[in-house]
Amino acid sequence: MTGRGPRVGFLGRQEECRTLDGLLEGAKGGRSAVLVLRGEAGIGKTELLNHLLERSTGCRVVRAAGVQSEMELSYAGLHQLCAPLLGGLDHLPEPQRDALRTAFGLRVGNAPDRFLVGLATLSLLADAAGDQPLVCLVDDAQWLDHVSAQTLAFAARRLLAESILLVFAVREPTAGEILAGLPELPVRGLTESDSRTLLGLVVTGPLDQRVRDRIIAETRGNPLALLELPHGLSTAELAGGFGHPDAQPLAGQIEQGFLRRVQSLPAGTQRLLLTAAAEPIGDVPLLRRAAALLGIDLEAAAVDAEASGLMTLGTWVRFRHPLVRSAAYRAADLYDRREVHRALADATDAGLDPDRRAWHLARATAGPDESVAAELERSAGRAQARGGVAAAAAFLDRAAELTPDPVRRGTRQLAAAQAKYQAGAFDAARELADAAELSALDELEAAQSKLLRGRIMSASRSAGAGIPLMLEAAKRLWPLDARIARETYRDAIYAALTAGRLPNGGVLEVAQAVLSAPTPVEPTRDDLLLDGVARMITEGYAVGAPLVLRALNEFRTDDVSRAEGLGWLPLVCRMAHSTWDFDTWSVLSARLVDMARETGALSVLPSALLLRLSNRVFAGDLAGADSLVAEASAIGEATGSSFFAHYSALVVEPWKGRESATRQAIDAITQDLLLRGDGKVITATQWAAAVLYNGLGRYEEAFAAARRGCENPQELGLSIQSTAELVEAAARLGRPADAAEAVRRISDMAQAGGTDWALGASALARALVSEGKAADARYREAVERLGDTQVRMDTARARLLYGEWLRRENRRADARAQLGAAHELLGHMGAEGFAERARRELQATGAKVRGPRTAATQAALTPQEAQIARLAGEGLTNPEIGAQLFISPHTVEWHLRKVFSKLGIASRKEIGTLREEGGASCA
After folding, report:
1. What does the pLDDT read at residue 799?
2. Which strand (E) or helix (H) includes residue 134?
């Protein structure tokens, strides 16, 4: 015979308990920690969470558990964990408060960005830990809905000094990477000795030695299996071993054992277990209402359920193990399941929880039913408004299945496909689009389906993969909806510029398609921009640049809504760079970053930061660019995407003259499998190498890299800048003929655009290939024109080149003036390679060189410390800094203490003073 035995979950778990106890003590002492327990079903993860619960005296504890049937209900798991803490919502900044309230359905509003929700979650947890340490326990995290898992992982990665312990339990094996990258503790099987001890506590009657050995071998130290499998054996099987071996996996054997126990209960108790299994919230009042509708004697059934040890009914419904829930659901036939879901739908308040009611109705419906499908469609709309894209996709998918009318079914399948795409379920989105196209879609829907396919390919493969489909969609959309068509062309040309050279088509094909579209009667600034970009690519820089510059001026001087800005300003900023319009690039890149930060639009913010930090590099603000790289890295860490962080480092590192760091940034780009085939990889990495080697005075290497970097001028941007690097390298090698074509291209661009930056760059290029008085006049023009701009990096380089020429002309006094200014400027910027070049040249004139105050000699703050110091010096509060950098105010305070210590100061005011004096690398 077998007995229930005492609670034995800690047998053989001393090491795991010590680890958890240490983390708990750290949290009590003000040091946050995160841990993911991983192991197979029944291995003891829940018992370890219960151990923490018992040890958390003096702490506030919140719990949640993933439920398989709720995996498509966005924010369900997060809401379950945060529900006890929602009283602290009023302490959050308004954007965070509104985002979280919208996500949880507590207010109606636009869909919140999921990472703004993540920041709000971090702030809410940190606020709750302000008075006493906070312990967060999440069981069965493999069944959290995707958005909840992503949000909690975001918060977990940002914890540092908040007195929070966050522990997840994940069942293995599990599909996909759940909470990847967080600290882990594998929970393995018990030793054979501990397994025998545990089995002896469970089996109190005779046990054949061979049966004992078989149970020990088959359970592989799994505590739940050791506790439960003997219950499936008869007395004869235990005593003599007369039974049939079970070939199922261990989890299946455990679940099968639970299934047999469920089936042995009275019919009313089985139905109660089924009803509780079908409603994963564990809401006892709801269960009571549904039981009454089903005619279940709740009190009697509950007594039997609790006596069986399978379920308890208290404040919440709790199953002994998730496998009991699945066994109770599997034990019922399809008819009984539908009847239970119908009762749960009727028992759910349609006003308070319409979406869960609709979901139960869908489960209760056997065939097509327009009323249920329409209700699911309304639920999808509400889910979408809360930012629950995955939930909206699930509702729409089921709505399409239940739609009797084939035409309406196709419309809903297309809507479901679009939602699946937004949720990142690309395969499912493609299948739904296939199904939708079998229906009688109208022309607009057919074109939108084509557009969707293009976006899926660009998102799931590479930027250029979906361009052909996007072009076809834009062509079909133009007579149906010109606005959507225009935006489709915009996205296609931005993707083409991002991808660069492609094996087939690319930016030239997109530009030709833009020009083939009908010309609007009254062109807007959007039309002017697209037309100008397309003509720059197809007809030449001189044709398109004036149109682009007109459009840029309108974007700069006219009001731009947030929606317009987030859509159009990335292309606007890119083209401001390509047309040498530095002022517009500076103003609008700052505006774009502000818009993305204010709205929490992290789909746009990484590219906005890249555009902004590129601008800051040319402005000579390498310290400011570094802080933006740190922000891009933080977002990459939060989103799991390092693409923009790698490109950001590639833009900044070459200017510092550090070859190893630059090569590392180049390798990170070239070795990224997702970027293979994109020609822009060659352009960007070769430009970076050219800048590095020009700064180090290794002109042969600079020339080779620059020549490759400017091979495809249609890419604009860094291809244009590579042309300038080529001229400098060729001139310093004494090969002006090799630079002639590049000089002509730069001069043509300057004439077409007419900005001081372009004219200054042209004068400098012509000076490098000139001699005598002509060279001197052109160098002077370059220094003067660039000096009138904010392009301080190019101004300093122009002075360096002019000073080098003056020294070669034996005009030492004049050379010292130019080289001294260049040395001071470049050193202060942190452009160490170019500054060292200036120092060597200055020494060659016989001047005594005073070492500049470079970034290397300033206070050794980390990039994040420098960024926090800069923001604090600008007057931002800790919560405002935390909101911008995706960390908690407590972590900001912790970093500021380190900043104060390193800089030898005691207040935020002193940071501002240091910044004004240029004495800290936080400027």
Report:
1. 95
2. strand 134-139
